[in-house]
Write a structure and sequence with these properties.
single chain; 507 residues; alpha+beta; 3 domains; five-stranded mixed β-sheet; 14 helices; globular
Length: 507
């Protein structure tokens, strides 16, 4: 059995201790911890718990939303803007498309008043009854320590907690990335509450992955006042949706969000002014930090029945307020997400050694296969239809991205390289940076432990990372000639289509 990614990454890092400092080697003061550079960003990473080492915080530095109101926050700072709110009765695909085109956050409100909303299902007690998970992961926001508790125990502790941080308090638990009960998932898809264009299966290329490689993006979050998710971006330029399903004692959540177009400015501000990297997901941003930002910050108070739409690459921080809240969140990977991930987000993930999770290149590969299968079936019947032309254009765009992926995966003697896998269920990732391995990698059986070889992605190897003996063997996941044959078949089919169309063809 292969070891976990964290175990393998921890072991391979041992060979770099002379050049890459570990957290224990670094100064312990907050000011020095924040002065790490890109070349040493992995030195702040504690791979055992997948979080960046936090600096010690005193009690008065803990974020609290006591006294917050939306009106007061908006009046206090000139760069704070109210997020657009649209009643669900007036929400159309065109309205949602406009928000997406502008790259601004928005809220669809009033979902709890629709006939399909089920109070008897969407409550925390039903959540506990329906859950098949005995233990759930929870985080103590005071020290960033992750533990596991029974769901009933966690809910009881959350209900008994005060709505705001108290002096001398040492424990305040937040349940994030919890598994969502199947009954809730079924309701989400069939309840006729969430707009169909925002459902987890709509315009989500992750659905094309084979069952053995499926990626679950649908998660639940349970928290009380003064619990939070630090500033971050959703993975791989995905589209985010977050629905407030249940509240107690007027619980709500405050969101601080940025526009898609400000992603670079946000990264620069966090790196240069706040001395943190937004891609580490470790920095809890104060209201004052947001207020000093050189870009607009949208502030939203999410209440029961509010569906928050998170733009691709939007930086956002969520702070729970008041009583207990339960939210359900999911991400969708569109072709725009895939493109932005390949060219921009995946290199950033590699730089900070953040696991890829969504298997972007594999998703692109299976998307092209699925789209072309559908295209071929319809081509003989609908050779000149607008829908078919749109499909051809989408496949063409996907192919151009895929060709750029293949340029990084191909070597001249690929025919002679050994193949490693016959199934996508055997998920390989780089032992150093955590990147998902789609096709090419380097492997060393000699430096293996219990039959688990050292695995390095080509990018890390090119940067000088290797195993202890430095005799790594180039390897491929599947025969590359099969992928190239599939690609050529798609191109021939598209070229045949373009002969009867006035649209631009495939080069």
């Amino acid at each position: 059995m292969r070891r976990t990614m964290e175990e393998r990454r921890k072991e391979i890092r041992q060979g770099f201790r002379s050049s890459v400092p570990t957290p224990a080697d670094k100064p312990s003061t907050a000011s020095r911890l924040t002065q790490t550079t890109c070349s040493s960003c992995d030195s702040t990473t504690k791979m055992e718990c997948k979080v960046v080492q936090p600096w010690a915080r005193t009690q008065d530095q803990v974020l609290t939303c006591k006294g917050w109101t939306l009106d007061n926050l908006l009046k206090m700072h000139k760069n704070f803007l109210a997020g657009d709110r649209v009643p669900v009765s007036k929400t159309t695909e065109e309205v949602i498309a406009t928000f997406d085109a502008k790259g601004i956050p928005a809220v669809i409100e009033g979902l709890q008043h629709l006939p399909g909303w089920k109070d008897d299902l969407l409550n925390v007690d039903c959540l506990a009854d329906d859950s098949s998970i005995e233990k759930v992961p929870v985080r103590n926001i005071h020290n960033n320590v992750d533990t596991k508790l029974s769901l009933l125990d966690f809910i009881e502790r959350t209900r008994n907690a005060s709505p705001f941080v108290q002096p001398g308090e040492s424990e305040r638990l937040y349940g994030k990335d919890l598994e969502t009960p199947q009954s809730w998932i079924d309701w989400l898809h069939r309840g006729n509450v969430v707009p169909s264009c925002l459902l987890p299966t709509t315009d989500n290329l992750l659905v094309h992955l084979p069952e053995s490689a499926k990626v679950d993006t649908l998660m639940s979050y349970i928290g009380t006042g003064d619990t939070f998710t630090p500033s971050h971006k959703d993975l791989c330029a995905s589209h985010g949706q977050n629905l407030m399903c249940y509240t107690e004692n007027d619980g709500s959540s405050f969101w601080f969000m940025t526009r898609r177009q400000d992603a670079r400015a946000v990264a620069d501000y966090f790196h240069n002014k706040l001395e943190h990297d937004i891609d580490h997901e470790s920095y809890v941003t104060s209201v004052e930090d947001f207020a000093r930002a050189p870009f607009p910050v949208y502030v939203i108070e999410q209440k029961l029945g509010d569906l928050v739409i998170v733009p691709r690459t939007s930086c956002h921080q969520v702070v729970n307020h008041g009583g207990l809240t339960v939210k359900v969140s999911w991400s969708r990977m569109s072709l725009k997400s895939i493109s932005q991930a390949v060219y921009y987000e995946l290199p950033l993930c590699r730089r900070v050694c953040r696991p890829e999770t969504y298997r972007v290149r594999l998703t692109l590969y299976y998307t092209i296969r699925a789209l072309y299968t559908k295209f071929s079936e319809q081509h003989t019947v609908l050779s000149c239809s607008t829908d078919l032309r749109n499909q051809a254009q989408q496949i063409t765009q996907a192919l151009r991205i895929f060709d750029d992926v293949l340029q990084n995966e191909c070597v001249e003697d690929y025919v002679s390289l050994p193949c490693h896998l016959s199934s996508e269920s055997n998920h390989l990732s780089c032992d150093f940076c955590g990147a998902d391995i789609f096709q090419s990698f380097l492997e060393c059986e000699e430096c293996s432990s219990d039959g688990d070889p050292c695995t390095i992605c080509p990018e890390c190897y090119a940067e000088g990372r290797s195993c202890s003996c430095q005799l790594m063997q180039p390897t491929q996941v599947r025969p590359l000639n099969v992928i190239l044959q599939e690609r050529d078949e798609v191109i021939r089919g598209l070229q045949e289509h373009w002969k009867t169309s006035s649209e631009e063809g495939v080069e």
